[in-house]
Each structure stands twice: as C-alpha cells, then as structure tokens.
Design goal:
This protein is an alpha+beta fold. It has helices at about 25-35, 50-60, 110-120, 140-145, and strands at about 15, 65-70, 75-80, 90-100, 125-135, 150-160, 165-175. A seven-stranded mixed β-sheet has the order 1-2-3-4-5-7-6, sandwiched between helices.
Length: about 180
C-alpha cells in the first residue's frame, strides 16, 4: 500500500484547496461523467449554484475540497463528505474524486486521493468509504486499492443508468487512528 503522505502529483501539477473560481471547471469535469458515464448515479449535471452549495456544505463541516491543476488548468477534483446523515456515522466519510476525461492513467487520481486522505486523517474522522459506481470502473478501483482501500463487496444492479443496470463497488480504509480507540 502506498502511504498517502508520500504521493506527489506528477510533473508540474499542484493540489490545492478549491476556490469559487474553480467551480466552472469542476462542473465541466463532472458533466461528462453524469451524461455519459457510470461512475456517478446522477443523471442531471449540477449547475454552478448547486456546486457552490456543495462546496460550502463540505467546507462548513471542516472537510477538504481539493483541485489538481497544471499550468492553470483544473484537471481534477476531490472532496470528502459525510457517509450517511445519522449521528452514529459521524466519524465515517465518503470520498468523491473525478478527473477530466483525458487525464486518466497519469497518477493524478492517486495524488489527489492521497492528499484527500492525508488531510482527512489529520482530523477526527476514522474511516473513509468509497462508493464506486460501476464494477467495470477499474481505474477508480485500482487507485483506491493502491491507497489502502479494501474491498467490502459489490452491490449488484442497484442503479439503472444509460439503459443498463449498474453495480456499486464498496471499498473502505481507516483514517488516522481508525478503530484502535474510541473517538
């Protein structure tokens, strides 16, 4: 397993906190995944107002919302959010990570998710869950495995998108002290 803190983005890429001015690029990265992909079960792309609300909600919880940029171009983003709303889940987060369609296979996803994990591990949270749309999403599954996520199972045909049934792959890894002690 690669340690999250050891990962540097390749080349001149930079990982930083997302700004309001990054939201159009984030929307543009996510929209093709919504319209043509199976990684997300959303069927309508969120507009800028929705992205503004999402980012504000993540930041209000003290969670990271990151972008990866190279030469001023945002190539991907990642953020953590609550896994579920019920109070007993308050120590568990879910990650979201997306790259521009032409940016896979360069180590960008590994660097971006590694930074997200490092920041979340520094907080009070103890578990990170990945809910990966489509069991054929081998790139995302590989990135998560590389960073220590373990397979928890596959929920078969739980979504219907683009005329087909879609699986969800569940993965998980500890953050910080994990379950070694009480919160």
């Amino acid at each position: 397993m690669v340690q999250a803190a050891q990962i540097q983005p390749p080349g001149t890429a930079l990982i930083r906190d997302a700004r309001d001015t990054d939201l159009p690029a984030i929307r543009d990265i996510y929209t093709p995944h919504v319209l043509h992909g199976l990684a997300t079960f959303e069927e309508e792309p969120p507009d800028l107002a929705a992205w503004t609300e999402r980012r504000a909600a993540v930041l209000a919880m003290g969670l990271p919302f990151l972008v990866l940029e190279r030469q001023g171009r945002v190539l991907g983003y990642a953020y953590a959010n609550t896994y579920r709303a019920r109070p007993a889940y308050r120590w568990t987060l879910e990650d979201s990570i997306y790259l521009a369609p032409d940016q896979g296979g360069q180590g960008l996803g590994t660097a971006l998710l590694g930074e997200l994990l490092a920041r979340c591990s520094a907080g009070p949270w103890r578990q990170m869950v990945a809910v990966i749309g489509h069991s054929g999403n081998l790139g995302s599954i590989a990135v998560h495995r590389r960073l220590g996520f373990q397979d928890c199972g596959t929920m078969r045909a739980v979504g219907f998108k683009l005329g087909q049934w879609v699986d969800t792959v569940m993965m998980q890894r500890e953050l910080g002290l994990g379950a070694s002690c009480l919160p």
